[in-house]
């Protein structure tokens, strides 16, 4: 059945993903991960197709997408900046650092700057507890982040 808001090529790729997961026990999460890998996010137009294919409600699919913070319903920025929110980093200033970042970007958590350069996300432990506050820029972990280092990170990322 055609879906107006998905381009034919997107619908073809979605159908391929669904076919690859046929017969899998509990396929919803693997399907969602595969879609996000393919498209960079979970397009809203995919939700009814997934629901129909798995014979589950659209609300169930939407609930899973919205429950897990790593699933995105819109494309992420060119750079994803994650700030650790775990206790060890909080104890050395991560809360204030997060407030600075959100204020500088004019965003809430999971938001993306209007120019599409930066998406800001909270993360709960990057494994740099002794070097907090910690952040991750794309796939690079950065320790001992202070306001000046944060400003450099955001500026270099294009914010």
From TrEMBL:
Its cofactor is [2Fe-2S] cluster. Its EC number is 1.12.1.3. The keyword Metal-binding applies. CDD domains: TRX_Fd_NuoE_FDH_gamma. The keyword Magnesium does not apply. It holds the Pfam family 2Fe-2S_thioredx. Keywords: 2Fe-2S, Iron, Iron-sulfur, Metal-binding, Oxidoreductase. SUPFAM superfamilies: Thioredoxin-like. [2Fe-2S] cluster binds at residues 84, 89, 125, 129. Transmembrane segments: none annotated. This is NADP-reducing hydrogenase subunit HndA.
């Amino acid at each position: 059945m055609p879906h107006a808001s998905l381009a034919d090529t997107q619908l073809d790729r979605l159908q391929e993903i669904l076919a690859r997961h046929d017969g899998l026990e509990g396929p919803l999460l693997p399907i969602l991960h595969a879609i996000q890998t393919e498209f960079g996010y979970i397009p809203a137009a995919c939700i009814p197709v997934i629901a129909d294919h798995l014979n589950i409600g659209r609300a169930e699919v939407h609930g899973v997408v919205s429950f897990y913070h790593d699933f995105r319903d819109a494309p992420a920025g060119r750079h994803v900046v994650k700030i650790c929110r775990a206790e060890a980093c909080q104890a050395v200033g991560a809360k204030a650092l997060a407030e600075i970042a959100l204020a500088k970007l004019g965003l809430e958590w999971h938001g993306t700057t209007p120019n599409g350069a930066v998406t800001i996300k909270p993360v709960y432990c990057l494994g740099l507890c002794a070097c907090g506050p910690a952040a991750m820029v794309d796939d690079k972990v950065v320790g001992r982040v202070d306001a000046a280092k944060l400003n450099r990170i955001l500026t270099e990322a294009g914010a």
